[in-house]
Design a protein that fits this description.
alpha+beta, 5-stranded antiparallel β-sheet, globular
Length: about 70
């Protein structure tokens, strides 16, 4: 299951990030590491971007970036 398919209030753990290069480094720097718990806080009216809670802080990412993050519920 990919992160972009989760709905508001759902929690999951990060299983794998399916990208490389600068985007991978940026996601890792923001705390998107293996087995981190992530919660969907809300989505923008047109569903992009989405606000997430990860490691006790809030972050917004685009759906296109969220679609690269594999999670398990």
């Amino acid at each position: 299951m990919m992160l972009d398919s989760l709905s508001k209030g759902q929690k999951a753990k990060i299983k794998k990030i399916r990208t490389d290069g600068k985007l991978l480094r940026r996601l890792l720097d923001m705390g998107f590491v293996m087995n981190s718990e992530i919660e969907v806080i809300r989505e923008a009216p047109l569903f992009d971007p989405m606000e997430l809670k990860i490691q006790d802080y809030y972050i917004s990412i685009r759906k296109s970036e969220a679609s690269l993050i594999e999670v398990k519920i």
